[in-house]
Amino acid sequence: MISAYYLQIIILVGINIIMASSLNLVVGYTGQLSIGHAAFMSLGAYVSAIVTLQTGLPFIVSLLLGAAVAGLFGILIGIPTLRLKGDYLAIATLGFGEIIRIIFLNLKITGGAVGLRGIPKETTLLWVIGVTLLSLFVLQRIINSRVGRALIAIREDETAAESMGINTTYYKTLAFGVGAFFAGLGGGLFAHYFRYIHPNVFGFMRSIEQLCMVVLGGLGNMWGAIIGATALTAIPELLRAGAEYRLLVYGAILVLMMRARPQGLLGESIGQTGGRSLKRRKTLFTKIKLFRRNK
Amino acid sequence: MFVQQLVNGIILGSIYSLIALGYTMVYGIIMLINFAHGEIYMFGAFAGMILVVFYDVPFFLAFLLAMAFAGLVGLTLEYLAYRPLRRSTRLAALISAIGASIFLQNLALLIMGARPYTFPSPFTPRVYQSTLLTISKLEIIILAISFLLMIGLTFFIQKTKIGKAMRAAAQDIDTASLMGVNVNQIISITFLIGSALGAAAGVMVGIYFRTVTPTMGLMPGLKGFVAAVLGGIGRIPGAMLGGLLLGIAEVMAAAYISSQYRDAAAFAILILVLLFKPAGLVGSAIQEKV
Amino acid sequence: MQPAEKNSTILEINEVSRHFGGLKAVDSVNLDISKKEIVGLIGPNGAGKTTLFNLITGHYEPTSGSLYFRNEKINGLKPYKITEKGIARTFQNIRLFGMMSVLDNVLLGMHARLHGGLVSTVFCLPGNKREEAEARKKARELLAFVGLGSKEKEKARNLPYGEQRLLEIARALAAEPELLLLDEPAAGMNPQETMELMKLISRIRDEMEKTILLIEHDMKVVMGISEKVAVLDYGKKIAEGRPSEIQRNEAVIRAYLGDSV
Predict the structure, then answer these.
(1) C-chain residues within 8 Å CB-CB of B290?
(2) Which residue on chain A is closest to C23 by alpha carbon?
(3) Closest to B261 (Cβ–Cβ): which among A90, A102, A273?
(4) Which chains would you list as touching C if contact means 3+ CB atom pairs under 8 Å?
(5) C180 CB near a chain A CB, below 8 Å?
(6) Is the pLDDT of residue A266 over 60?
(7) What is the C-alpha separation between A293 and B12, in angstroms, rounded?
(8) C203 vs chain A: nearest CA distance in angstroms?
(9) Distance (Å) from the C-alpha of residue C56 to the closest C-alpha of chain B?
């Protein structure tokens, strides 16, 4: 038997693989920078936990309900915000993430600032492995389809994508919704393993951590997300020895990694990098020409 | 009641303005969200507190030294974490900024520990009262310093040669470079000034709430950034206005809606501005060329 | 050349203007294009040719005037809707999906003609697989048609310049358009490649029965393959007619050479 300590690490790795690979669909494949992914995780966690606690429905039902609500919020938040590009989209997702966290901090049904306790322990190793593999399979299928092609085209050149007959708003929202759905699944598993959830567990830093997993592994690469999630979950745990140095090292790794290999471990450099211009690009990956409209 | 809240909002807002200036100046020139700016603010607060509490340095001297120290931290940060990435994708630069932010916060945690430090106010606690308004000496000093710094910055940007070069670089850094502006120097000065202003905000918040902690930079950092976006990121007067508006809105939301949702109010305003006036309140539209 | 029949107008540009602030990039332009016609659009730099393309494809909305495609008003429609209706384009400053393979680029061109959605993809419905296989077959045929048959696996951004232009054409054809807009297809090509390109454009009209509107600076190309040429200058249409007429037109000569002539 594996000890409880290692079991917990493996379960966290599985949940983080779901989180990173679903975020990868949004950021890595569709090119839409989201720094509020943890908010969807919290939606899945709270909804599934509350359903389990209040109705006693089977785990699978509450898990799916949590994911569905998260997916729905992904679509609802995506429709207005995905008109924004690059940094502005990132800020808007951050804002929504914070608002959701603050609302959870103040609702009665979520336990407010005390958190939600006594969630039944339903998540087992088998559940985590099963849901992780299924998520990866579905995401991989989406990427290798007409839908996935359209998403990558939006990342590469949104204007050209629209000229191909791709309804870019629809596909961006779709990616956001699917990403949020799987984040909700991850949240449901999380809540039913740790049995206690608090809004601050799903705060801004959690979103950043998930983004870092994707970026370190390599944007737009499924194996990258898997490796990134595994490395960034396991390494800090193994660094327990020097716990106080953990996050310090983590921050330094991010800075150094961006200097040495900005495309991540497995990623190819997306878009045109190393242009002559000192001005950063308007979009995240591709270079587009801009002009200021003269009044 | 209303006038009191308005004044409280302006006090808070002037702090946000100072933080927002650092974000906006950097973004204007290199289009990078300097995520570590909140940590610079925290470093400034710690520097001020340490000088005053442990070394008995007079407050105003400590204030200036804290600004200088944070300016140097900002310079180093730019040199180590951002300059090597100047020609890479924006995402890479953003991640590097996030990494720097995590690093600096944990560096402070490691050195100072997690417990909060008390930063006693150096001023005699005096309160001025009238029928409409109650205001303390400390609050008046905070307001005065904030506005003096903002006026000073405006003068510097408008009148000095370096200020003009900064404006040119913010317009078009490539052209500015061709016209003989030393771009590296301008970016360094931008980080120096932005960080110093952030430190000023940090020290003032420190004496206002009488505490400094290693995690104190996170929320004001985000809020300062919201204020910069609110005013139209990249625009210096926009950051000042955005900070004041955000401060007033937050205090009003806490007073008239619910104090639990004061942070949510800030982010809700952010989203509304992004959706309906994405270039900010004083920004101008940019259109993509096909 | 056949005389244009009354009913054969496929695109009708009616008093279309587009202003950017004080600049009239396109100013009250009228132009009719008939089915299976090759129309050249010429004019000095900044005359408004690409802006007119962007108006037809929906990237810009006209300030005034209207556009009819197959007797249906299309102004105000989004670019993806216009592609669905049967207008495809290439870009002056090549806009391929650089990280994707040559074949994927053509498959993306087919996007509007395929149906595989999220549900059929996730649940592996059989129709989805069949459609994908047929699409691949057709994409390969198109690549062979433009002469890129052996390059399907390469990344689009690794192709030489001339081949990138051909790939843009194949990608536009994949949308099965009735009207094809080509924005400076010969730019950056050597004389040999340009000759091949002219043959290809003629074949697209003759074998695939497409209507073509093309912007081109190379007068040999424009005059060689167009049945009709329209000339823009400062946003206004200053002439329209057969190539031979345009070459003698004084207003056109003045626009190109200045008032000194």
Answers:
(1) 50, 54, 59-60, 91
(2) A294
(3) A102
(4) A, B
(5) no
(6) yes
(7) 35
(8) 22
(9) 13
Hey, of B89, B284, B287, B290, which one would you mutate to test binding to chain C, going by the most C CBs within 10 A of its CB?
B290
Q: Which two tokens stand for residue C138?
A: 């057709």
Q: How far is CA C42 from CA A220, C74, C253, in A?
A: 41, 23, 12
Of chain A, the percentage scoring pLDDT greater than 70 comes to: 88
Q: Chain C within 8 Å of A142 (Cβ-Cβ)?
A: yes
B107 closest CB neighbour out of A90, A105, A248: A248
Handedness of CA A125, A128, A131, A136 (dihedral sign): negative
Q: First-to-last CA distance in chain B?
A: 53
Where in chain C are the domains?
1-86+179-188+210-261, 95-176
User: Which amino acid, A152?
Assistant: I
**Helices in chain A by DSSP H: which ranges?**
4-24, 37-55, 59-81, 86-106, 125-143, 146-156, 158-163, 168-194, 204-217, 222-238, 246-260
Strand locations in chain C, DSSP E?
Answer: 9-20, 23-34, 38-42, 64-69, 72-73, 87-89, 179-183, 211-215, 228-233, 236-241
Which among A32, A91, A287 is the top mutation candidate for probing chain B, defined by the most B β-carbons within 10 Å of its own β-carbon? A91
Distance from CA of B170 to the nearest CA of C (A): 23
Q: Is C212 helix (H, G, I), strand (E, B) or coil?
A: strand
Contact (CB<8Å) A96/B96? no
Name the nearest CA neighbour of A45 among A125, A123, A124: A123
Beta bridge partners of A290: B288
What integer best gives the mean pLDDT of chain B?
A: 88
* pLDDT at residue B265 greater than cutoff 90: no
Whether residue A96 and residue B271 make contact (CB cut-off 8 A), yes or no, is: yes
The helix/strand/coil state of C189 is coil
Token readout for C215 is: 């912007």
- Pair B244, B13: CB distance under 8 Å: yes
Fold of B2-276: ABC transporter involved in vitamin B12 uptake, BtuC (1.10.3470)
Å between A57 CA and nearest CA of chain C: 26
pLDDT (tens digit per residue) in A209-257: 899 899 888 888 999 999 999 998 888 777 766 667 777 887 888 888 8
Class of domain C95-176: alpha beta
Please list every residue in chain B whose beta carbon sits closer than 8 Å to the beta carbon of residue A99. Answer: 264, 267-268, 271
CATH number (3.90.1570.10, 3.40.50.1980, 3.40.50.720, 3.40.50.300) of C1-86+179-188+210-261 reads 3.40.50.300
**Chain B contact for C59, CB < 8 A?**
yes
DSSP 8-state assignment for residue A197: B
| CA distances from residue A57 to A4, A41, A208 in whole angstroms, order as listed | 27, 20, 33
Which ipTM was obtained for this model? Answer: 0.90
Nearest-CA neighbor of B200 among B24, B84, B58, B40?
B40
